[in-house]
Amino acid sequence: MLSALVVLKDTGWPSTGFFKLARRAPYKRQGDDVVLWTREIEKLAEHYATR
């Protein structure tokens, strides 16, 4: 999810909307917020590293 790169200025974290979207269909991501966000950033890095 490319939206994992968008963070709130005040906190440096994604909004609650990001986590809600990630946990519902069709994404259905698992894990607490830290794990979920970390996995998404890792997936993005892996995907764009080969481009």
How would you describe this protein?
This protein is mainly α and 51 residues long. It has helices at residues 16-23, 33-49. The protein is built from 2 helices and no strands. The model has no long low-confidence stretch (mean pLDDT 96).
What descriptors fit this protein?
51 residues; mainly alpha; 2 helices; 49% helix
Share in β-strands: under 5%
The secondary-structure element order is: HH
Distance between the termini: 17 Å
What structural category do the secondary elements indicate?
mainly alpha
Number of helices: 2
Low-confidence stretches: none
Specify the helix fraction band. Answer: 40-55%
| Largest beta-sheet details | none
Number of E-state strands: 0
Can you give the mean pLDDT?
A: 96
The gyration radius over C-alpha positions equals 11 Å
Tertiary shape: globular
Task: Explain briefly what this protein structure is.
The chain has 51 residues and is mainly alpha-helical.
